[in-house]
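ARCHIVE CARD
CATEGORY: sequence design from structure
SOURCE FIELD: tokenized fold
FIELD CONTENT:
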């Protein structure tokens, strides 16, 4: 790990920034180039639909590091910097403008981009997508000026924007093609819980129906639903998912499958190239499947994990380690805070510790007696043991999960011991 080595990180995101930090923390003294398209230094995205959108958190609270950090540790942070091509055989990248830079290891942290509506009127002014600081600034200003918004999409972003808009005092209508918000992730029982949360907050819900068109003279004025219902819409926010930014990886010949495919070490199909964060479709050795996660915690943790494994490639003292952290994300909507640990794509039972009607409970998704995921709602300091329970992959007594007198830390330890 001499000064002669160079590591290039494509994407000045949370994952990229934490990877760069980890390289220096681990003692790497070579060149670190962190290249990002945005004009802002790396920042965290969760506040963009929550406290930052509401104006409660200033920009100083969203940046990953203070503005002096990168120079102080010798990280070459280039903003408004676009990588045009990656050439794995030559181990170099080409920047916009033609500069070519060689690397020993490269990390892709290019993130994801919001899916766009493909409907009549989708290109009208006043239609907002939320991905960066400027998007959040513009959306806040529009909500405050108009006092009403239609949110298209009932996933996490849509629900959080709807909640923030209500907290800003705006009238809010939410349109979701599924029968319930968050149904794809949480299923019908917990989707109904969040439906009620938003209904109680005064959100006008249009569920189980799609959007036919947006209408307006230059700027959006109405949203037309598939049943011909017309919603007044001086502002529209769209949250219908994101797509991983794989253009560079594709052009470089890397293997793709709903993201850049990696092994358990976050290494791609090309030697010396890794991927982390939203763009990485990584094999998870504990869960036994490939997953791509669009969550803050993955960016936070995968970046440093990839950095450590890159260092191992070029002679670091530590060997490569698989990425085994259990998926985790959180959401705050009104006075309902939650943390979700695990990944339940299918289940045969949900066990509750506490009553959802009180908005203070834990839900466990089980399949064949094994906990696939757990969600704690307004119950704190339990996400760690829930993740540990998921990681054991052991069958568990549903009564133990439901009983508030059974300590979750002790239960996780018991299950781990049973698994050897």
């Amino acid at each position: 790990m001499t000064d002669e080595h160079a590591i290039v990180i494509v994407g000045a995101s949370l994952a990229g920034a934490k990877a760069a930090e980890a390289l220096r923390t681990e003692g790497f003294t070579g060149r670190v180039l962190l290249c990002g398209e945005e004009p802002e230094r790396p920042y965290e995205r969760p506040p963009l639909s929550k406290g930052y959108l509401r104006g409660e958190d200033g920009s100083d609270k969203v940046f990953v590091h203070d503005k002096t950090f990168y120079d102080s540790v010798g990280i070459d942070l280039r903003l408004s910097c676009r990588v045009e091509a990656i050439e794995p055989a030559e181990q170099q990248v080409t920047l916009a403008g033609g500069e070519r830079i060689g690397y020993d290891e490269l990390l892709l942290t290019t993130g994801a981009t919001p899916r766009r509506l493909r409907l009549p009127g989708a290109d009208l002014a006043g239609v907002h997508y939320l991905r960066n600081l400027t998007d959040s600034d513009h959306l806040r200003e529009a909500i405050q000026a108009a006092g009403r918004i239609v949110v298209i999409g009932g996933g996490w972003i849509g629900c959080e924007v709807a909640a923030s808009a209500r907290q800003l005092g705006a009238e809010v209508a939410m349109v979701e093609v599924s029968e319930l918000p968050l149904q794809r992730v949480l299923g019908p029982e917990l989707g109904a819980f969040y439906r009620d949360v938003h209904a109680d907050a005064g959100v006008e819900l249009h569920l189980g129906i799609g959007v036919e068109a947006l209408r307006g003279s230059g700027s959006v004025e109405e949203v037309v639903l598939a049943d011909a219902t017309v919603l007044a819409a001086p502002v529209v926010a769209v949250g219908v998912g994101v797509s991983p930014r794989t253009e560079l990886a594709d052009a470089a010949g890397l293997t793709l499958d709903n993201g850049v495919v990696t092994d358990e070490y976050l290494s791609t199909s090309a030697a010396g190239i890794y991927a982390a964060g939203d763009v990485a479709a990584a094999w998870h050795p504990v869960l036994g499947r490939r997953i791509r996660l669009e969550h803050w915690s993955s960016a936070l943790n995968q970046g440093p994990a990839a950095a450590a494994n890159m260092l191992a490639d070029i002679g670091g003292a530590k060997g490569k380690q698989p990425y085994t952290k259990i998926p985790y994300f959180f959401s705050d909507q009104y006075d309902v805070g939650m943390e979700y640990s695990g990944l339940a794509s299918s289940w045969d039972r949900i066990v509750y510790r506490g009553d959802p009607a009180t908005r203070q409970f834990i839900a466990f998704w089980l399949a064949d007696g094994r906990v696939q995921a757990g969600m704690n709602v307004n119950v704190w300091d339990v996400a760690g043991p829930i993740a540990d329970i998921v990681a054991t992959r052991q069958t568990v007594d549903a009564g133990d999960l439901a009983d508030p007198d059974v300590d979750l830390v002790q239960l996780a330890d018991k299950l781990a011991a049973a698994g050897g």
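CARD ANNOTATION: DSSP finds ten helices and 26 strands in the chain. The radius of gyration is 22 Å.
SHELF: design records, drawer C
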